[in-house]
Write a structure and sequence with these properties.
The termini are far apart. This protein has two helices and three strands, in the order βαββα. It has a three-stranded antiparallel sheet. β2 and β3 (43-50) form a beta hairpin. The protein has 69 residues and is α+β, with helices and mostly antiparallel strands.
Length: 69
């Protein structure tokens, strides 16, 4: 929001893929946008995140089924 943070929740099962978008200026400041491609064809954006590649890897880890030996 304009004067504070907002929070929306999205079930992890609704996410098909995750990608990062960064301009050169974003890379300089270490921020970026995470794009969540949803299974229904829509997408959601998480804008202005610090260390977006770390966030992407964490989300992808949740999307990958656990392999038990």
């Amino acid at each position: 929001g304009l004067f504070g943070e907002s929070e929306d929740r999205l079930p992890i099962a609704d996410i098909a893929s995750v990608s990062v978008r960064q301009s050169p200026l974003d890379q300089f400041f270490g921020i970026g946008t995470i794009v969540l491609q949803l299974k229904e064809g829509k997408h959601e954006r998480l804008v202005g995140l610090r260390d977006p590649d770390v966030v992407r890897r964490k989300i992808e880890a949740l999307l990958t089924p656990a392999r038990w030996a």
